[in-house]
Design a protein that fits this description.
Largest sheet: 7 strands, mixed
Strand content: 15-25%
CATH architecture: Alpha-Beta Complex
Distance between the termini: 51 Å
Strand order of the largest sheet: 3-2-1-4-6-5-7
Order of helices and strands: EHEEHEHEEHEHH
Shape: globular
CATH superfamily: Spore Coat Polysaccharide Biosynthesis Protein SpsA, Chain A
Helix content: 25-40%
Number of domains: 1
Structural class: alpha/beta
Length: 215
């Protein structure tokens, strides 16, 4: 069975008022932070179930107590997201696929597909676009900070700009299937519907049931 050399998860401590604030309203800051935490846990579940030689949490904050023991934790470093992405690949070293914490509906099938594509000698990089214009995954056979530095992050043109940078550097890049990031509440509903067995879906159902009970 083909194994990815490394799967990296880029994440941060879910602090109320500082994460997933675009879910508010209808969520409170505390509810948004809860959804962010279960989304991260769902991502860890999928990564843990996917064959890999090494699993790494690139984290902004203290490592979660529930994190499986076979994970390596690397602190995020750098001023902006581009610098932090570059540092994550540099610190991890070697061929790596990086995902975020915004896709609790991520599947093993997608990660295995990424592993297959990234392992091919004719592939230098993979990019998984997000429907909102960003991207949910990026993989490199060889770390290179030029891939990320100067690329505009966190806007509707990020995915396109990242694709162009990879091509400008002469990297043979393959696209992965597009996914929908959880940014807005409608995104959360869609993610829960597509993956009803996740912690995220259960937390969202509990939130909605609580709202109906208090109405």
């Amino acid at each position: 069975m083909l194994k990815l050399s490394q799967i990296l998860i880029m994440a941060k401590t879910p602090v109320p008022g500082k994460c997933k604030t675009r879910l508010c309203p209808p969520c409170t800051y505390e509810q948004a932070a809860t959804l962010a935490e279960v989304a991260l846990r769902d991502t860890v579940d999928v990564v843990s179930a996917t064959p890999a030689l090494r699993r790494v949490l690139v984290f902004d904050g203290p490592a979660p107590r529930w994190l499986p023991r076979d994970y390596t934790v690397i602190p995020q470093r750098g001023m902006g997201l581009g610098e932090r992405l570059a540092a994550a690949f540099e610190d991890a070293g070697g061929p790596s696929l990086l995902v975020g914490m915004d896709t609790p509906h991520l599947s093993q099938r997608l990660l295995r597909r990424a592993a297959t594509i990234l392992s091919r000698s004719a592939t230098d990089a993979v990019l998984g676009p997000s429907i909102d214009g960003g991207y949910w995954a990026v993989g490199l056979r060889v770390p290179d900070p030029r891939v990320f530095l100067g690329v505009p992050m966190s806007d509707a043109a990020t995915g396109a700009a990242q694709w162009e940078r990879l091509r400008e550097l002469g990297l043979r890049t393959k696209l992965l299937p597009a996914l929908r990031d959880v940014d807005l509440f409608e995104d959360a509903l869609a993610a829960a519907k597509s993956a009803p067995g996740t912690r995220f879906a259960a937390a969202l159902r509990a939130l909605e049931e609580g709202e109906r009970a208090s109405a």
